[in-house]
Amino acid sequence: MTTSPLPADETSRRESWLKPHRLVLILIAVALIAAAIIFGRWDWLPRYLPRLWSGLLVTLAMLFGSALLGFVLAVPLGLVQVTGPWWLKTPAAAFCTMIRGTPLLLQLWLLYYGLGSLFPMIPGIREFFLWPYLREAWPYGLAALTISFAAYEGEIMRGAFAGVPSGELQAARAFGMSPAKLLWRIWLPRALHRALPTLNGETVLQLKSTPLIATITVVDLYGVISRVRQETYLTYEPLFLLALIYMVLTAILVFAFRYFENRIPTRGI
Amino acid sequence: MIDWSLLALNPPGWGGVLLQGLLSTMEIAVGGYLLGLVIGLFGAIGKLHGGPLARDLLEVYTTVVRAVPELVLILILYYAGTDFLNKMLALLDYEAVDISGLVAGIFVIGIVQGAYSTEVIRGAIKSIPPGQIEAARAYAIPPAKILRRITIPAMLPYAIPGLSNLWLIATKDTALLAVVGFSELTLVTRQAAGTTKSYMLFFLAAGALYLAITLISRFLIGILERRSRRGLAGVN
Asked: Fewer beta carbons under 10 A from the terminal one: N or C of chain A?
């Protein structure tokens, strides 16, 4: 099965991607998948398909919702750590350290069970207009995911803000830009541009964190598969399908980000 | 308002249970991390110097592990690993064994960490100036000795930032084993909180313990990093 060693040269490697041993590997993979389809039990799949679809939507909503909100929080978190007064700098740094130093599962349970047990004690909260949401699980999941994303991305934004060459900021000041205009026109765009490449990896990591919210009864993709496993007593088939779905989602994210990254001009920067 | 006596070390309090959970967490984190390092070292060498088949299989391993959520991987490896071992034992006419949560946990965390360490170590080995290894080969040092004397010490300064990050991830990934019912810190915290109904107190206490691990690790990593970089020209 072994063939001649791979040529080190990148171009010739791309030409001869399909090598005999790769063909054999692909055949083995196809055989394994066929065996899983033929010998596994898949009769549950059509019944659960609508629920899997809604679970997928919940997962994607949680991913993009928390990434978007988290990124909006991360920008001020990073900025005050670089330029803020000490009474903003210290809490922001402490927040990032604390969130990044504890497991997300613990934060999630702290919010859901901890805060969730404190809220009903507040008198008059049942008349509060957000109460119907506070009784559900997903706002806690979204909050925990958002906080976690904000802390990790905030640390990256701190580096991005600090990494903008000071000459550019001095030039902006020399043009008489006000601090707000300098931030809006020069500092923020340059920092965002520096932070963008990391966004891909962080979003993939965030996708891989979303199944945790199933532990607080949010029915996302993982929650649906857990239900399947409880109701059909199957172990492997649902889990393998779940792993496959997450792999496809990761691949889509990676390729989508790569596409957009290539469209952002980087010349001369 | 806050009943601090709940954190007492002796049985009416849950402090001792929490510390026991912390110990399990540390055991799994250390064991899984070390297993991951061994996998990573061999994986990196396989990716750099292995045959085409080994390279492709390792590529599949690292890609799949890094694309699937840890929680799902842990479930699959936990069930599949114990199942596979018991089937093998049955095939060899041995009694089925009940695999201890500790061993299963270390195995699962090790496999996950191995994929990430493979990439970190591969990158670190590639950033060693090639002249150093060529010089060692020119002296006719056997490959195993080159690995031990030249490659590993020379790659350490490049690998330590990535590897220390992986250690911090390992300590936090152990919390996921709570989902398969292993009594590490997060799960015992939840049990303590559920029994006493003081959720905030226990979750905050566990958070403080995790944070302490992270902060102490960071301090030690700082010392290690400075030591491994001695004699190197500053990069920054």
From this structure: C
Tell me if A3 and B56 make a contact (CB, 8 A cut-off).
Answer: no
Q: Which CATH number is associated with domain A62-218? A: 1.10.3720.10
What would the two tokens of residue A224 be? 């649906």
Domain definitions of chain A by residue range: 62-218, 219-264
- Residue A212 CA: distances (Å) to CA of A94, A99, A216, B134: 24, 16, 8, 48
Q: Give the count of domains, chain B.
A: 1
Start-to-end C-alpha separation, chain B: 51
Has the ipTM of the complex gone over 0.90?
no
State the average pLDDT over residues A67-93.
91
Q: Which two tokens stand for residue A90?
A: 């210290």
Instruction: Answer whether A118 sits within 8 Å of B189, measured CB to CB.
Output: no
- Both structure tokens of B48: 């750099």
Asked if residue B30 belongs to a domain, the reply is yes
pLDDT for B216-225, tens place per residue?
A: 999 999 998 8
Average pLDDT estimate for A195-210: 88
Dihedral, CA atoms, B199, A137, A67, A86, nearest 10 degrees?
A: -30
In-domain check, residue B11? no
* Rounded CA separation B28/B110 (Å): 9
Question: Which of A116-139 are b and which e, b meaning 16 or more Cβ less than 10 Å from the residue's Cβ?
Answer: beeeeeeeeeeeeeeeeeeeebbe
Digit-coded pLDDT (tens) for B41-84? 999 999 988 888 888 899 999 999 989 998 998 888 888 877 88
A229 → chain B, closest CA residue: B75
Q: How many CB atoms lie within 10 A of CB A248?
A: 11
The shortest C-alpha distance from A207 to chain B (Å) reads 8
Instruction: For residue B198, name the pLDDT band (cuts at 50, 70, 90).
Output: confident
CATH code: domain of residue B134: 1.10.3720.10
